[in-house]
Amino acid sequence: MRKKVTVVGGGFVGSTTAQRIVDQELADVVLTDLLEGVPAGKALDMLESATITGSDSSVAGISTATGDYRETANSDVVVVTAGFPRKPGMSRDDLLRANYEVVRAVVEHVVQFSPNAILIMVTNPLDAMVQAAFRVSGFPKNRVMGMAGVLDSARMSAFIAQELNVSVDNVHSFVLGGHGDDMVPLPRYSTVAGIPLPELLPKEKIDAIVDRTRKGGAEIVNLLKTGSAYYAPSAAVVEMVEAILKDKKKILPCAAYLEGEYGIKGLYVGVPVKLGARGVEQIIEIKLTPEENAALQKSAASVRELVNILGVA
Known about the structure:
Blueprint lengths: L3 E5 L3 H12 L4 E6 L4 H16 L5 E5 L13 E4 L15 H18 L4 E4 L4 H12 L6 E3 L2 H16 L6 E2 L2 E2 L7 E2 L5 E2 L2 E2 L6 H12 L1 H9 L6 H15 L4 E10 L5 E12 L2 E5 L6 H21 L3
Parallel strand pairs: 1-2, 1-4, 2-3, 4-5, 5-6
Antiparallel strand pairs: 7-10, 8-9, 10-11, 12-13, 13-14
Helix pairs in contact: 1-2, 1-8, 3-4, 4-9, 5-6, 5-8
């Protein structure tokens, strides 16, 4: 029997995530959206494409305008992408209150029908939204996480591969902290075929890559004008989904609930974790320089400020 994944939000990120899961035959998928007809239409389109890609995963689309989440029942993983999109000139912080109400309502419905699911939050501002989902759901911390570090690390890796003109397979990057301007890319822990990045590029080149990584989402928003990134975010979500469904024990940077690790307590922050069938199975603590630690603490402080505004600390 195949696993079941519900993707909440039928926009670009949600629908592309659903398509990738179906194409890779990872699970049966339910795609939900408030709009009438849109999730069903997209699901039907995916189902018809599956005869070409050779996937036997089923996909259904439902409108949740009436709050009916019954078809999502007994999902193994629920991915929440629903929310208002980020627009040009709009910070992630601007999204805070509007998207909190969306997340609260979605999570309440989801946990009613899938009380044993693992929640992966994608809605921005990510770190505050995953903390809100944790509080609203009442789930244990290992079953609620946020997708951020995988995406930010992927962006950094893309820029490194471009700069060095090497295969992306050779590049492994590490980005910690909140999913925003205060994120903490770690060049010391970023490698190309096992070679630390500082041995391959001068400091000014690395600094430029770090800066571009921090502004990666905004760069795409400014280019698109009327939307935000979805190809890379959906790929990042699916890497996490695969690690969970296949119990891969894969170490990935994700927003996880810290209880003293890295000197941070009671807060969701991006750190390396081991992802498996139980969700976040281990938080990996790495040694940071005083400068790196200061940057991580600054990033965590920014997250805590948002969390305190929402009252979900």
